[in-house]
Design a protein that fits this description.
single chain; 14-stranded parallel β-sheet; elongated
């Protein structure tokens, strides 16, 4: 936790002491003079709540190689089309967040020079068309979250070179038609969330190479029909959520190999006709959501042996499936919703 310094007039550098934290929100104030970061500044939150046009050039920080900035968070600069020159000089930057910068069309071409960047979030950058070609040089990046940047249509080449990436969340990346061919190279990826990619037809063939993946969420993949044949190689997968993937016809034959799976949500997978025959091998499964899986008519052999399974959701399922639910799930030790 960082302590806030005493109030310092923005743009008046004569007052700067060892400032480590700056929070500045513009509402009705006049734009300040173009300000520079004090050398000791580590965290900067700069927010614009005004409905008036504000030119980012009037408040964008003068960047110097001496900057100690670790976190830069910009919010609400709806008319900003590009970031300041010299961003690559922020060599200590670890966390970059851009919120509702609606007119931002490009990121700095030298973004890949930020060798210490660990976390990056882009939220509501609706005019951003692509990530820089040297994006793969962010060798220390561990978390990438992109929310509602709808015209981003592809990943940069060599995306799989982000060897330290642990978390990837992509929301409303609606132009995306395929994940990178080298996606399986993300060996340290632990959490993957993909929301509303209506054009995505398949996951990469080497998806099973993501040996450290613990959580996978896929939402609204209407054109996804099958999961990769090596899906069962995800030995560390603990949570799998497939929502409204109603084009999905079946689960992989090696699905029972997911020995660490604890939570399985298949809500809205209305095209799924049966569960795999080895489903009973999921001995650590604790929660199963089959809401609106209306085509399922029977339980696989061994389903009743899932002694750890305590929560089952069957709302919207066929009466046949409900009637065939093993009796040991109808006692006080289990919660069944939708019977």
């Amino acid at each position: 936790m960082y302590l806030r310094p005493r109030s310092v007039p923005v743009g008046d550098r004569s007052h700067y002491g060892p400032v480590v934290y700056l929070r500045w929100s513009r509402s009705c104030l006049r734009p300040p003079p173009r300000m520079g970061f004090p050398p000791s500044l580590r965290i900067a939150y700069i927010k614009n709540y005004s409905e008036n046009r504000v030119e980012y050039s009037k408040i964008s920080p003068k960047v110097t190689p001496a900057s100690s900035l670790v976190t830069l968070d910009l919010y609400g600069f709806k008319n900003m089309q590009r970031l300041s020159d010299g961003m690559e000089m922020l060599t200590k930057l670890e966390d970059l967040r851009l919120w509702n910068c609606h007119q931002l069309k490009e990121l700095p071409s030298k973004l890949g020079d930020l060798g210490n960047l660990k976390q990056m979030r882009l939220n509501g950058c609706t005019e951003l068309k692509e990530l820089p070609s040297n994006f793969d040089q962010l060798s220390n990046l561990t978390s990438l979250i992109i929310y509602y940047c709808p015209i981003l249509s592809a990943f940069p080449s060599n995306f799989g070179q982000l060897k330290k990436l642990e978390e990837l969340q992509l929301y409303n990346y609606s132009g995306l038609q395929a994940l990178p061919l080298d996606f399986g190279y993300l060996k340290n990826l632990e959490e993957l969330q993909l929301y509303n990619y209506f054009e995505l037809k398949a996951l990469p063939s080497d998806f099973g190479h993501l040996k450290n993946l613990e959580e996978l969420q896929l939402y609204n993949y209407s054109r996804l029909k099958v999961l990769p044949s090596d899906f069962g190689h995800l030995k560390n997968l603990e949570e799998l959520q497939l929502y409204n993937c109603f084009g999905l016809k079946e689960l992989p034959s090696d699905f029972g190999c997911l020995k660490n799976l604890r939570v399985l949500k298949l809500s809205g997978c209305s095209g799924l006709a049966e569960l795999p025959s080895n489903f009973g091998q999921l001995k650590n499964l604790k929660k199963l959501d089959l809401e609106d899986c209306s085509r399922l008519e029977k339980w696989p052999l061994g389903f009743g042996d899932l002694t750890e399974l305590k929560e089952i959701f069957l709302t919207g399922c066929s009466s046949t499936l409900k009637d065939l639910l093993p009796n040991n799930f109808k006692g006080n030790d289990s919660t069944v919703i939708g019977l």
